[in-house]
Amino acid sequence: MGAKRLHPFATSNLIAVEFSELKIARGIAEGAPMSYFANLTAGRIVLWCYLIWYLFFAARYFDPSPALWLTSLGLSAIIGIALVISTWRGKAALDGWQTFRLFLMPFCVSSFSALVKGRGFILVFSPSARENLIALGCCIAFCAFVAGAKLARR
To answer: How far apart are CA 56 and CA 59, in angstroms?
Structure first.
């Protein structure tokens, strides 16, 4: 089980909230980042692959326009706050990584759509098969890395 921590506004007599999402921070702090990757669930691997796909195309079609990035930050703030409110569970707060992802995802979606607008993309796929294969290869390489970390753990 993950580490137990009280919600910042909780009193000592309330039930502690479990924060297992902090494995990456704890693993790096302990000098064991490989343990984080070895313990990734399938869902977390998919999220990492989404990030890899985004980073590949964001780098490929990068636009230094401040308006694009400020708009994406603004949308991220508005949508992120709405997502935090919609996922609030009473006295139990989301941990830092969950909250970060709720703000990161709208940022990535809005900036991705602005970067690839008018470039022939269908959903998240480039019109260039080569680009799609390179991005897919990066995701496969990450999955192989995680599989290696899982095997090394045993």
So the answer is: 5
Contact 49, 143 (CB under 8 A): yes
Q: Kindly report the pTM of this predicted structure.
A: 0.76
* The dihedral sign for the CA sequence 48, 105, 72, 129: positive
Mean pLDDT, residues 46-57: 97
Please state, in angstroms and rounded to a whole number, the distance separating the CA atoms of residues 44 and 52: 12
Burial class (CB in 10 A: 0-12, 13-18, 19+), 134: middle
Task: Indicate the residue type of 123.
Answer: L
126 alpha carbon, distance to own chain's centre: 21
What pLDDT does residue 94 have?
80
How do residues 90-109 score in pLDDT, each as one tens digit?
777 788 888 999 999 999 99
Report the alpha-carbon distance of residue 153 to residue 97 in Å, rounded. Answer: 24
Residue 37 burial (C-beta neighbours within 10 Å; 0-12, 13-18, 19+): buried
Question: For 64-91, how does the pLDDT look when each residue is reduced to its tens digit (9 = 90+)?
Answer: 999 999 999 999 999 999 999 998 877 7
DSSP labels, 45-69? HHHHHHHHHHHHHHHHT----HHHH
